[in-house]
Amino acid sequence: MTHKGTIMLETERLILRRFTAEDAEPMFRNWASDTEVTRFLMWQTHPDIEVSKYITNDWVNNYKSDSYYQWAIVPKDLGEPIGSIGAVKVDDATEMVHIGYCIGKAWWHKGYTSEALTRLIKFFFEEVGINRIEARHDPRNPNSGAVMMKAGLKFEGTLRQSDRNNQGICDASYYAILAEDYFGKLPEEREKIRNEYEKGNI
Questions:
Q1: For the chain, what is the domain count?
Q2: What are the DSSP calls for the chain, one per residue?
Q3: CA 144 → CA 50, 61, 105, 164, distances in Å?
Q4: What is the pLDDT of residues 18-58, one digit of tens each?
Q5: Which range of residues forms the domain containing residue 64?
Q6: Looking at residue 59, what is its pLDDT?
Q7: 122 in a domain, yes or no?
Q8: What's 154's domain CATH number?
Q9: 4 within a domain of the structure (yes/no)
Q10: Cβ atoms of residues 68 and 5 within 8 Å
Q11: Cα dihedral angle (42, 126, 131, 151), rounded to 10 degrees?
C-alpha cells in the first residue's frame, strides 16, 4: 500500500475535500446537531457549535498523517459540507480500510453518499493499493446497507450484539469489497494495472 492522505476527489456532483476550521458551522447546522442523523451512529449529537469546532480542529491536525482519511462531502451546487466520509480504521497488516459516513437529513435519498463511497473505492483500490474495503451498519438502519450495496460492497453477515451506538448494544451487519472484486484480475495482474496507473499510462 502507498498511503496518499486525504487528497481532493471529485465526482459528477460532489467535491470531496479536507475539512477546514471554517466547516464547523455548516457541520453543526447541516448534520451534527440532528438527533435523527446520529440515531444509529457511535458519536453523540453535538449540543453546540463548540463541539463541532473541536472535532473539525482535531481532523485538521490529523491531516498531517498520510494514513489519515476524512473527507467533507460538498455538493458542487451548494459549496458547503453536508456530511462526512472517511476511514474510521486503517489496517496496514491486512491492507484494509473500514469506511464510515453520515450525511444531513435534507440530502437523504439523493444518492450523494453512495456517489461519495464509490469514488473512495476507486481511490483506495487504484491509488492506495488497498486489498479490502469494509463497512458496517445497525440492521435497524437498512438505508445505510443500501448505500453499501449500491457502491458495490457485498453483504458478509451480521454479528449479533457486537457493536454499540446511540441506541445501546446492537447487531452489526458487515459489507465488503475486495480488490479482486473490483479489478476482476489475479493479484499479479492487479499489480501490473496499478503500476501502469501510477506511471500515468492508464
A1: 1
A2: -----S--EE-SSEEEE---GGGHHHHIIIIIT-HHHHTTSSSPPPSSHHHHHHHHHHHHHHTTSTT--EEEEEETTT-S--EEEEEEEEETTTTEEEEEEEE-GGGTTSSHHHHHHHHHHHHIIIII--SEEEEEE-TT-HHHHHHHHHTT-EEEEEEEEEEEETTEEEEEEEEEEEHHHHH-S-HHHHHHHHHHHHTT--
A3: 28, 29, 13, 16
A4: 999 999 999 999 999 999 999 999 999 999 999 999 999 99
A5: 9-198
A6: 98
A7: yes
A8: 3.40.630.30
A9: no
A10: yes
A11: 50
CA distances for 115 relative to 135, 147, 167, angstroms: 15, 9, 27
Tell me whether residue 3 is in a domain: no
pLDDT surpasses 60 at 114: yes
Residue carrying the nine cell digits 485538521: 60
Decide if 2 is inside a domain: no
Confidence class for position 199, pLDDT limits 50, 70, 90: confident
Tell me the average pLDDT of the chain: 94
